[in-house]
Design a protein that fits this description.
Blueprint lengths: L4 H6 L4 H11 L15 E10 L2 E10 L5 E10 L9 H14 L7 E4 L12 H9 L3 E5 L6 E2 L9 E6 L2 E7 L8 E7 L3 H11 L7 H15 L14
Parallel strand pairs: 1-4, 4-5
Antiparallel strand pairs: 1-2, 2-3, 5-9, 6-7, 7-8, 8-9
Helix pairs in contact: 3-4
This protein binds 2 DNA strands through strand 1 and helix 3.
DNA sequence: GCGACAG
DNA sequence: ATCTTGTCGC
């Protein structure tokens, strides 16, 4: 049942096909508790752009010690425009390459972007989680859809993100007096598990450490042309 | 038609 | 996301 997977990895879908792929794949998302005892490794996922290419970085931390275990990066030529709601078709090709370079896949991904808090309930966190059948959490810095009530100033305070009657995610204050992050289910987690894991990874900073490090690494890779790390899809000139 | 709109 | 340095504050 891996229709679309090859095309997604190769960045070959049209805008219309991309929306259809989301509609087709959304039913595969599973919402279930992720036992903390089963989480030993957490990987932060992010991408940056430069010179017509997307640079993805993935950083795996030990969940208990929050120490970096391994990391990887990859680049891919950009083949898809940025369209709100279709972010994954722009970033997933490079991200999937980077994840494939890890020695071990983690127990859960923390993705820079939304999961179910998406127009078709299939944001990039769902997309990556379903394609890899790996637990994943969406952790975005702003809302794509839905609304959240104001939250208290203390770290750990939360407010539901909802669209009408539908609960889509949580606005989560990960640090005192900073803007909240928006958590949503990607795949094989539930909202409570997701919020708990994210909070456990925020060592006094707004973004969970794996995501923060992935963001830094993606930026430096983009600036340095990935520092000599090359990809079949994006060969050196 | 108008405004909103992850990264 | 990106174009871009220093700077104010905890």
């Amino acid at each position: 049942m891996d229709e679309y997977k090859a095309e997604i990895e190769a960045g070959e879908l049209s805008v219309g096909q991309a929306r259809m792929a989301q509609e087709a794949l959304r039913s595969r998302v599973r919402v279930e508790a992720l036992e903390e005892a089963r989480v030993q490794r957490v990987t932060g996922v992010d991408a940056s752009y430069a010179g017509g290419s997307a640079y993805a970085a993935v950083v795996t931390l030990d969940y208990t010690t929050q120490q970096v275990v391994e990391w990887a990066s990859a680049s891919a030529a950009i083949t898809f425009p940025y369209i709100p709601g279709l972010l994954s078709f722009r970033e997933a090709p490079a991200i999937l390459l980077a994840l494939a370079r890890l020695e071990r896949l983690p127990d859960v991904l923390i993705v820079d972007g939304h999961g179910l808090a998406h127009p078709r309930r299939f944001g990039i966190a769902c997309h990556l989680g379903v394609l890899l059948d790996l637990p994943s959490i969406g952790c975005a810095k702003s809302l794509l859809i839905g609304e959240a009530a104001d939250l208290e100033a203390e770290a750990g305070s939360r407010a539901e993100v909802r669209q009408g009657e539908e609960l889509l995610g949580l606005a989560l204050r990960t640090r005192q007096r900073v803007k909240p992050v928006y958590i949503s289910v990607g795949h094989r987690v539930d909202l409570e598990s997701a919020a708990h894991i994210v909070l456990a990874c925020c060592r006094g900073q707004r973004l969970p450490e794996p995501a923060r490090l992935a963001h830094q690494m993606a930026n430096s890779c983009a600036r340095q042309g990935e520092a000599g790390v090359m990809t079949r899809q994006d060969p050196p000139q």
